[in-house]
Amino acid sequence: MDRDDVLIGLFAAATALCAGETVFRLKDRNASKARFLRERWTLEKSWERFDAVSGWELVPGFSSEDIRINRHGFRGPELVKVKTSRVLCLGDSVTFGPMGEKTPYPYIAREILSKTNTSRPIEVINAGVGGHSSANMRFRIGRLMRFKPDVVVIFSGWNDMFSDDFASYADLRGSVSSFWHLDMQKNVRSYLVDAIITAAERNKRRPIPVAYRPSEFVPFNFEYNLREIVSTVTARNVRAAIMTLPSLIPNEQEALTPAMVKKVMFPQSIAAGDYDTFKTIYRAYDAVIRRVAADTGSVLIDTAALFDDQKRPRVPFFEDTCHLSPLGHKIAGTFVAERLIAEGMTE
Description:
The protein is α/β, with parallel strands linked by helices. The chain has a single domain (45-172, 207-342), classed as SGNH hydrolase (Rossmann fold). 42% of the residues lie in helices and 10% in strands. The chain has 12 helices and 7 strands. The strands form 2 sheets. Strands 4-3-5-6-7 form a 5-stranded parallel β-sheet, sandwiched between helices. Helix 3 crosses helix 12 (326-342), helix 4 runs parallel beside helix 8 and helix 8 runs parallel beside helix 10. The chain starts with a helix and ends in a 5-residue tail after the last helix.
């Protein structure tokens, strides 16, 4: 066999491997998209679309009477072309907000910040996507940084708390290629090799869940994701601010009222009515937020404490356990703007 035959054989083998890898990648993407359509679109959110990296994103250009998505895939008006100071609000459905364009807290914050005396106009981007956990946010934050924000406000934790089970908590930290692979608990680098390993029934990479008592639970997956998000932001010399999680369920000093009980919803891993366990798990997530903010030098925006003021009735500010009402968004947006101004993050 001469040298040309060897080269032709190597080229053919390389081509076959590339073709096989492409076929398996397309198959995986189609399976992920089918899962998205089955699980997310059952909620009939026509303003969302499948995304192979972050799981799902908003549909650019979507417009209805109550929801407007700009051409970049953010809720709200088009981005200003002139030089501005940009505040990017990263979050879930709480950040995305309820129906009504002037309702979400990023809009409220923008209205207040736009009236401040700064060297450049201030633009607030609502980068909230309903259902996104800290994992979804970790996979999308790199792409969002291309919009060159000056400040990133991070609101995350509720979807982690509602989807994760402390009684069956697997270690999902580490590098994976997308949200879907994290969700499937498979660290896939070569789809072709993975298919061979799976076919040989030797795929033992699925992490074993560990059961924790509520009092000993630490949401280390959430902490890992939150630290990665902040690291991505600060690596680009952008300032980070992290919000705590305001809740309808009051702290220890405030009694539950019938009006509160009527609105409360519980995570699947916590029995309905088990307020003690809820508070214990909530405190675990709250502790992570405060620890990450302190360790990374991020500004802590304590929106949870804002609603703990017993002089202010809690029920009108919440739709359920975690979602703010329009009035709650007004209070939160005002507070976020005031904290950013106080910390000199809008100059």
